[in-house]
What we know:
Blueprint: E1 8-13, E2 18-25, E3 29-37, H1 43-47, E4 55-59, E5 63-64, E6 83-85, E7 88-89, H2 102-108, E8 112-115, H3 119-129, E9 132-137, H4 143-152, H5 162-165, E10 171-173, E11 181-187, H6 193-200, E12 203-209, H7 214-219, E13 224-227, H8 241-249, E14 254-257, H9 259-267, E15 272-288, E16 293-305, E17 319-325, E18 331-336, E19 341-344, H10 359-372
Parallel strand pairs: 3-4, 4-6, 5-7, 6-8, 11-12, 11-13, 13-14, 14-19
Antiparallel strand pairs: 1-2, 1-9, 2-8, 3-9, 10-12, 15-16, 15-17, 17-18, 18-19
Helix pairs in contact: 8-9
Amino acid sequence: MAQVTTSPAYLLLEDGRRFEGVALGSRGTALGEVVFNTAMTGYQEVLTDPSYTGQLVTMTYPLMGNYGVNPEDRESRSPAVAGFIVREAARRHSNWRATGSLESYLEEYGIVGITEVDTRALTLHIRDRGAMRGGIASDGTPEGVLLEQIHAHPTMEGLELACGVSTNEAYTLPAVGHEAFRVVAFDFGVKAHSPRLLAERGCRVTVLPAETPLDQVLNMDPDGLFISNGPGDPAAVDAAIEVIRALAERRVPVFGICLGHQLIARTFGARTFKLPFGHHGANHPVKHLDRGTVEITSQNHGFAVEGADDESVPGAPDLRVTHRNLYDGTVEGIEHRTLPVFSVQYHPESAPGPHDSRYLFDEFIERMRLERGVAAATP
C-alpha cells in the first residue's frame, strides 16, 4: 500500500504566515483561498464537491484517509479542490469498500496536498484573521516566489467560478419507480447526491448547463426547478436569474441550496456578502424558525444573504427568513411570501453530513404536488 512520503513541503499564507509540513499527493504548487472544514469524515465527498473550486481545504479533524477512497463516494467525477491540507494522512487504509488510498487518489488527479501541518494553529489563524489566499509548495519553490504568486492570485470576491464547473451538456436521471414529476436542475457545481435524492422521490431530473436560456427551459414544461450549489461569488453570476423569476411567476416550484439559495435571494432583490471565514463542515446548528426545531447541517459556503434582526430580507420585501445559523445568526433559509419558492444556505443532500435536513426534498415534492394537483402517492 502507498506510504506517506517524507518529502518536505510548506504552506504559505498571503500575510506571510508559514506552516511546515510533508508533501501529500501530487508534487508542485497549488494556489487558492485557504478555508477549514470541521467534518470528521467524508473527506472524499469534500474533495469532489465542486463548491470547493479554487480553495485549499484544511481538515480540522486530525486523521484523514483511514478508510481509503472508492468510486461510490464521489460527488463529481474528480476532485475539485485546489489543494488539500491535513494534520495526519493515514499510512494504510482499511475498509471493505475501499479501492485505493487517499495518497494515491490525490496523485492520480494531480492534487497538491500537505500533511503533518499544525492544523489547529492554522484554523485559529484563519478564524481570527479571516480566510485568505495561500499556496502549498512541495517542489522546492522559494518562499519569495510563492508569496508573489499568492498576491497575484485573484481573491474570491467578484470571482465567477460556477459556470466554469457546470456540465457542458444536459443529462437526465430517470425516476426511481413511478415517474411523478419532471424537474430541471441548473448545474452550478451540483453534487451527485442532490439529483439522486430527487430521482428516488419519483422525479425525472434533467440537469442543465448553467447558462441554459429561458425558452429552452419553458419548452421542457417542468414541474419544478432546482438550483444547485456551486463555487465563487454569487454577485458575479448572472445565469439562471431570468429563469428563476419567470418560472416562479408561472407558479413552478423553485428550490435552491447553497449558491442556488443566494441566486434566488438576489433574483428578488436581496444582497449577498463575504463571510469572514465561511461555513464549512458537517456539524453546523441551524434553527427552523417556523417549527422551533434545530437541525445539524452540512455546510460549504463563503458568502451569505444579508438579513435583518427579524424575518425580513433587506431589499427583498417578498422574501422572509425561515432558518438561521445558531453560530452567527446569518440567514440560512428563505421563502417567497406568495410564490412557491424556497431555499436554504446549507446542504440538505448531506454528503457528507447528518440527514436532519433531507425533509426539504420532500417539501419540494409536496409543493410540486400542490401546484400540479397531483394526488399524493400511496405508501
